[in-house]
Structure formats: C-alpha cells, structure tokens
Amino acid sequence: MGDVAARFAEIVGDTNLLAGEAIPEDYAHDEALTITPRRPAYLAKPETAEEVAELLKVAGEHGVPVTARGSGTGLSGGAQPREDSLVISFERMNAVLEIDTENHVAVVQPGVTLSELDEKATKAGLGYTVHPGELSASVGGNVGTNAGGMRAVKYGVTRHNVVGLQAVLPTGEIIRTGGKTSKVSTGYDLTQLIIGSEGTLAIATEVIVKLYPRLPHGATVFAPFETFDEVMTVVPKIIASGLAPHILEYIDNLTLAAIGYNEKLSLGVPDNIRDTAQAYLVVALENRDDDRLHADIEELGGMLGDLGAMDVYVLEGNSARRLIEAREKAFWTAKAAGADDVIDVVVPRSAMPEFMRRSREMALSREAGALGCGHAGDGNVHLAIFCKDTAKRKQLLTDIFALGMELGGAISGEHGLGKAKSGYFLELEDPAKIALMRRIKESFDPAGILNPGVLFAERA
Fold first, then answer.
1. Which residues face 222 on adjacent strands?
2. d(CA 355, CA 358)
3. Range(s) of the chain covered by CATH 3.30.465.10
4. Which CATH code is given to the segment(s) 215-332?
5. What is the third-level CATH fold of 96-213?
6. Where is the FAD-binding PCMH-type domain (predicted)?
7. Which residue stretches of 195-339 are H helix?
C-alpha cells in the first residue's frame, strides 16, 4: 500500500497527500449524530479535474474505496469514509470561475462554499437561492445530497438550480453534462442522475448553477397558533393565494423556545400567547417594490387572522434576519440539547398533520421525543429524536419512515441517506426499485469504489 500512497502523492504533490495518523480527525466524519468517525487511509487534496481523474484511476486499479468530501456539514454520514479508503477533499478546488450575468448562471468548483458564492453573486446583483441552513456547506456537497432548505418552497432544491456539471467517472473519464441552457431533451439527463447520488456514481468537479435577481425589499411574518393542525390548514391557502413566499416554515413551541434561548431572540410574544401556542408559522415575502411588499404583508396578515392565528407579528430588517438565522441553527440547538438523531421525512403537504400526529404518538408510546420544525411549504418535516435506547430508536425510526412512505412520502427530503439511513431504505423501499438502482450503480462504477456503504449498505 506504500506504492499506492506514492502514486497518489505523484498526482497531487507530497504536501497535498496525507496518510494514516497524519490525517486530522475532522476528515473522519460529517455531522451525522449516529455515525462513528473513521479515519481514512489516505487524504488527497487535488487542484484540477485531471488530478481527480488520475486519483480515481489509481484507486480503481488497487481497489481503494473513494469518498468525496466538501465541507463535511452533511447530516447522514455520506462523507464518513472507510478505514481503507481515499478521501478526496475539494478544499483547494474552491474557485468561482464565472458569474455570467447574461445567462444568469455561475460556474463554480465543488469546494466553493455557499457564503463564498453568495458574496461573488451579490456584487453582480444576483443570488444563488439554495440555502440549506449552513452557509459553510459546499456546492459540491449540495449536489451530492440534492440539498434543499427554507427557500425551496419558491425556488426549488439543488436539482432545480443546477443546469450543468463536469464530473469524473470512477473509471477516470471526465464528462460534461448539461450546460448554460435552460432546458435539454437530448438523451438521458445525466446531470439529474448524478445530483443526489451521494458520491456513488461520479464526482462533480465543476457545477453550473442558476442565479436570480436579488429583490431589494423583504419582510417576515410570524404567527402563533393554538394547534399544529391549524398551522397546516393555513399553508395550502397561502400557496394558493399567489403571494409566493420564499420561506414558509413551521416551528413547534418547544423548538422555538430552545432556539430563542440559545440565540437570545426576543420576538415580543406576550406570555399568555407563548404559554398557549403549540406551533408557529414563519412566512417571508420579497418584492422589487416596497409598496407592493407592504400590500402583500397586509393581505397575508388578514388571511392569517381569519384562519385562526392568535396574533400576527411583522418583522423587518435585523429582527427578521435573526429569526431566520435562529431557525437555520435548529440542528445545532437539537444537538446541544442531546438529540440522539435527526430526520427529514418528506410527505405531501396535505399529509403533514397526520404524519406529525402519528409520529409523535409513536414516540410517546416508546417514552421518546420527536420535536422540531420544518419546511411547511414543501412537506419536509425535520424532527429531532430523543431516545437513548438504540434498539428502541431503530424501531421508532423504522415506524416513522414507514409512516411517511405510507402517506406518499420518502425517508429523506434533503439530507440524503448516507450511511445513517441506508439500512432503513433497503428494508422499506420497493425491491424492484433498489435492484434498478444497483444496476445503475454497477454501470457507472463497475469496480464499486465510489462511497461504498452509502445507499446499498446492509443494516447493522
């Protein structure tokens, strides 16, 4: 294996290849709560797609598993390497190559973080709209998991905002898919197949993303409700109104109390309402015209009042920004509170009240907790699970995932399966679909070196 390390070092340079105990602990895991860190055998930091291709060729020749890594902010164990593996880190491939103001796209390398892309796009009056809650996340990592976030209700998730890729196949071939065009109907859509494949089919080395004009005026409406069912009754009516919110979130009372405490957030909610409300709705609107924005806010406020909101608060400027930032930190709040796992089941919007009610009943029957918040506008439920007993927790999650699928949903809406949720996927998903996915995997990766253990891992 020393020869393998030498060949990797020849490709990326001695200073960009680490092995064994020289590899920092950070590269042994992502942010998944249930995955044990594993230090890889090798860590390479390439600078070009050609170097990535050469690394994969050598890995394939010697049967070395390969895990691609962006910022390591994932929540499903997709970036957890095997102990005999090569981690390819994209920290040196972090350039914004182009901001194209005529085609409204950006061309970026996979290691570019969302904050770096946002900074460059802002200077051109544009913005990238996928914000999964952690701005240190990399664009390449977002491609791997098909990341979403709060703005997906208006702008969609990663797959709706990526129009082209440069990618390296595990055989070492470099391909380009899609481009700067807004549509394509020529053969299989390889761009969309690679997005969300969690590094199991190919490794993206360049990404073309859509950019949108930045709207200068925005405000956030915050409304408490006595029950969660009332919140979810309001959601389809807001969407049907044509107001086009770019954020439409729910937060349960305990989660709001926790994030409010952690972030020292004061929203001016009187004690009598705070003690009674079970859930809160957060709706953010934007417009290019300030008068039109305020007309929309007035219409929304009236609608919420008519539909049972206990009160309506309009937040602008710093207050609105701090509430959204606090919501984005809900995972860290749950982790600090001792959550044993986090899940992100997605169901049709109309099924959210039943899913929430039954999943909480399942948790209570096992003396566990299921608390959280989520993207009310697109049915993506984020729950922090509190259940110390491993066997009980696995059965609880199996039942919750099965419930989500029974209601027409899926195990994950945006975190991906990684290694943390693959076992549930194999147990609950249609075997014919799994067999088809295996054949796709084998077609792309005949040697099986890309991210083994993700998607097709056997349950522990």
1. 282, 313
2. 5
3. 96-213
4. 3.30.70.2190
5. 3.30.465
6. 35-214
7. 228-240, 253-262, 271-274, 290-306, 317-328, 330-336
The architecture in CATH of the region 338-442 reads 2-Layer Sandwich (3.30)
Q: What would the two tokens of residue 343 be?
A: 């899940």
List the structure tokens of 328. 């984005």
15 CB-side CA count, 13 A? 2
The tens-digit pLDDT sequence of the chain (460 residues) is: 579 999 999 999 999 999 999 999 999 999 999 999 999 999 999 999 999 999 999 999 999 999 999 999 999 999 999 999 999 999 999 999 999 999 999 999 999 999 999 999 999 999 999 999 899 999 999 999 999 999 999 999 999 999 999 999 999 999 999 999 999 999 999 999 999 999 999 999 999 999 999 999 999 999 999 998 999 889 999 999 999 999 999 999 999 999 988 888 888 899 999 999 999 999 999 999 999 999 999 999 999 999 999 999 999 888 889 999 999 999 999 999 999 999 999 999 999 999 999 999 999 999 999 999 999 999 999 999 999 999 999 999 999 999 999 999 999 999 999 999 999 999 999 999 999 999 999 999 999 999 999 998 643 3
Residue ranges of the chain assigned to CATH 3.30.70.2190? 215-332
Q: Could you tell me the two tokens for 149?
A: 């976030």
* CATH code reported for the domain at 1-89: 3.30.43.10
Q: Which of 418, 423, 356, 374 is nearest to 395 (CA)?
A: 423
117 with 106: CB under 8 angstroms? yes
- Asked whether the beta carbons of 326 and 265 are under 8 A apart, the reply is yes
User: Which residues of the chain form CATH 3.30.70.2740?
Assistant: 338-442
